[in-house]
Amino acid sequence: MLQKISLARETGKLTAFWSQRTVAEGNGNLFKVAKGTGSTEWHTHHDQDETFLLLEGQLTVQLRDGDVELTPGDLLVIPRGTEHCPKVDGEARFLLVGPEITSNAAGGKPAWSYEA
Amino acid sequence: MLQKISLARETGKLTAFWSQRTVAEGNGNLFKVAKGTGSTEWHTHHDQDETFLLLEGQLTVQLRDGDVELTPGDLLVIPRGTEHCPKVDGEARFLLVGPEITSNAAGGKPAWSYEA
Question: Is B100 exposed, middle or buried (0-12, 13-18, 19+ CB in 10 A)?
């Protein structure tokens, strides 16, 4: 039988900020959860669009032409080639949707984001 | 500048039940919102997986081997070829993620679901 996925439960399992945890797959896309605090580095994904859906908290996506402020239930597609830098006051939890290939510039994460 | 999409605002624009409204695109996938009440017909999508993310209300996905009860923040991937029948007590609002191609069996909707 198919199993539903509670996004709140999955984000609750996250141990590191800015690390993505894959929770489901459909049509070759991965559904990943992550949590953020502070900000990442400015970066660009040249090979894929990045879709954020904010679940909890507040997330500011800084763009070179201005900031986009997300509140829970807001979705933002960052087209490939668009430089961006997510920033969080406090803590934010979000869903990411993207292809199964690893981005050629998945980075931007601060050094302290990586899990052991 | 990129525009965020408020899923609550987009579901608020829906005028018919079980009709999908495309709100964003990324990596060849469409992000669509819909609202449901009552139930659809039993149906199967043979050519694509269907991903539900429940936003508001309660949604029961009936499967031939049992029911999956979704509450807001729950995600369910229905693999292609899996017969299913969504059912809603009251009203539910949800996000669907799928490829840009139209399903070969998009149906299952009750006759009264269609917009003029």
Answer: exposed
Q: In this complex, do B4 and A98 lie within 8 Å of one another by their Cβ atoms?
A: no
Contacts of A25 by beta carbon, 8 Å cutoff, 6+ apart: A31, A100, B77
CA distances from A100 to B48, B62, B90, B110 (A): 16, 28, 36, 35
- Candidates A55, A75, A78, A103: best to mutate against B (most CBs of B within 10 A) is A75
Is A1 in contact with B27 (Cβ distance < 8 A)?
A: no
CA A69 to chain centre: 14
The predicted-structure confidence for B9-59, as pLDDT tens digits, reads as follows: 999 999 999 999 999 999 989 999 999 999 999 999 998 999 999 999 999
